[in-house]
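REVIEWER CHECKLIST
Item 1: Sequence provided? yes
Item 2: Single chain? yes
Item 3: Sequence as submitted:
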Amino acid sequence: MQFGNNLTASRQTAPRQTRDVWSNCGPLLTLTLTFFVIAITTKSLSADDQVWDVAVVFQDDTCPIEQTADDPIARRTVLDASKQLDSRRLKLPAKLSGGNIHDLPPHFNNLPEEYRAIADSAKVGDAAARLGLVLFYDRSLSGSGQVACASCHRQQFAFSDVRRFSVGHDGRKTSRQSMSLINLRYSLNQSFFWDERAAGLRQQVLIPIENDVEMGHSLKDLVVQLQADPIYPPLFAAAFGSAEVNQHRMASALSQFVLSIVSYRSAYDVGMAQVDSVLDDFPNFTDQQNLGKRQFFESGCASCHLSEGRTAGHDVSAETPDFDRNRPVFQTAIFQIEKAVVNGIDSDDSKNDAGVGAVTNVAADVGAFRSPSLRNVEVTGPYMHDGRFKTLDRVVEHYNWSVQPHPNLDRRLHFAVEGMAIPELQKVALVEFLKTLTDHALLNDPSFADPFVRLE
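Item 4: Structure as written out by the authors:
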């Protein structure tokens, strides 16, 4: 395949190509546009700074807008397509910084066996992750061409959305808040979305594309569209050995990109590397932050958010008489609950969102929701599945005084129903500790940024 050869070997200007890029406008409009694919080149400042530069521009001004003069809708479609395609230039990183798990700090690699097995099974290839990066930011994956995956999962907000409900491709709002995509590589819970309706990440990454509110496209049509788009065949060839576009490859590339999003460069990680135990004061923390860290463990937050897993010999979520929320800490890196839980934000009322229970129709699942990682929680608000809490202070206050009784309430929160009565000083300190989990390097890492750049 000539495009693939250009990507990996010759890097010479690709020949002039004629491709049907807009064939879904019905019998009134089927256009064939002519493009140049500008040379796919590299700029090698260093191994980490190397970028792919793929540009697609119109060969000339022959876009046949005059053919649509009598059809204003079709004319607008052509103009929109022209603007979109005229800006499809890519600058791609040589590698994504979270792709190699061996580059991570020791507390990530010294994990319980269950976490290590999950991480080791998550294979991430640089070429596939780069393709996933492009797909993730490409608005043409939506039916209207208005939104991309990144529209609701923005890097600066830890791949979440600051809006309570995200806005879909046609202006309608989603029914739940957009979850952060941080550190899914280490997720023991391999069912995704708040209600766990996706059985695996590869299924999860495709569902929004066909969701009527979110992206409103057809996967079958999208495969044809991407196959005809000059930027994609060389990327698929680099990732999978041939230029064929199919749903399986799209899911694989998108999931590998998501798995490469690993947060490990926060102030907490810096401090963890300087002490023998997570319970020691961190030398890079303020007194207030160290107080908040102590409160995190003493109040039982760690029993949920630093779970050692379901098969580590001490399942903290099991109905066992030796449950101790102040148990020894067995892992200090993955701030994520190991399963969907009921956290007491609602009572057992049929009017409330049933969460996982609405998918499984199992009474014990009613009111349970998957939980995102606490990493970068400072920037992922508003919080909970419906974005009801605007601030971290309000979240802490919920657990301090507002946990409601529920037949499915997670056992680790039973003690909180009567109130925890954490003093104000410690509450404020706890929030300051949670802010030390913010990974500013990841939020500003150019290798995870939008690869599409406009031609000047």
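Item 5: Key structural point noted by reviewer: The beta strands are 17-22, 31-43, 51-58, 89-93, 452-453.
Item 6: Recommendation: ____
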